[in-house]
Amino acid sequence: MTTPAETPLPFLGGYPEQLLAPVRLALAEGTLGEHLQRRYPEAHGIRSDTLLYEHAAALKQRHLRHAGPLAKVVFDNRLQLDHRALGTLTTVSRVQGGNLKSKREIRISAVFKQAPAQMLEMILVHELAHLKEREHDKAFYGLCQHMLADYHQLEFDTRLYLTWLAAQRPASVSQTPPASALPAEPEPSGPGPAR
Ligand SMILES: [Zn+2]
After folding, report:
1. How far away, in angstroms, is 38 Cα from ligand 1 center?
2. pTM for the full model?
3. 126 C-alpha vs ligand 1 centroid, how far in Å?
4. Element (H, E) at 135
5. What is the mean pLDDT of residues 151-155?
6. pLDDT: is 177 or 2 the higher one?
């Protein structure tokens, strides 16, 4: 059995140890799930790709009206906990009638179908912000916070939720997930520029 201090926390890389120690303790004591349930009691009813698209389009209309069209927003079963990204924004380029057409698509891990409402909101805001800001820099996080005032707390708590989820389903997660197994890292697309 691993002692709390040895518990790997792949979703929480980069956070200071003073924040992580209580997480290890809560995992060891089995109280992390209750903590999250108390803090985020609200589920969401967004179960289909159609509803997800409508929700994302409404957010985009409110905050990023001029960011260019979004062709698709879908839940993706292939984005699992051991995947390096749990949300992606990709640009798919195709030549059509001599013109290069670009379509931007957001994929959200199906893990978020069952997640608390605010966590789905967090990952949607993250991917939508990439429509304007490619890098995870100050401008990017400023935009995220503009769309969702609690963004930073929600990102941390979403990482807690993913940590808890991985602890419930150890078989679905590789022994040593890559350090970059973050919930919201964009994934380079195949053809055309990433994101
Ligand atoms: Zn990102």
Report:
1. 27
2. 0.82
3. 6
4. none
5. 96
6. 2
- The CA 127 to ligand 1 mean position distance, Å, reads 6
Which residues are close to ligand 1, an ion, with C-beta < 5 A? 184, 186
End-to-end CA distance of the chain: 41
Å from CA of 52 to ligand 1 middle: 19
Gap between the Cα atoms of 59 and 148, Å rounded: 10
Confidence of residue 195 (pLDDT cuts 50, 70, 90): very low
Q: Where are the beta strands (DSSP E) in 2-127?
A: 72-76, 87-96, 99-109
Q: Are 106 and 73 in contact (CB under 8 A)?
A: yes
Phi, psi for 192 (deg, rounded to 5): 80, 170
Instruction: Please tell me the distance from the alpha carbon of residue 26 to that of residue 61, in angstroms, as a whole number.
Output: 39
Instruction: Find out whether 106 and 119 touch, Cβ atoms under 8 Å.
Output: no
CA distance 145 to 1: 40
User: In this predicted model, what pLDDT tens digit does every residue of 72-116 receive, in sequence order?
Assistant: 999 999 998 877 789 999 998 888 888 888 899 999 999 999 999
CA of 122 to the centre of ligand 1 (A): 11
Q: Mean pLDDT in the chain?
A: 85
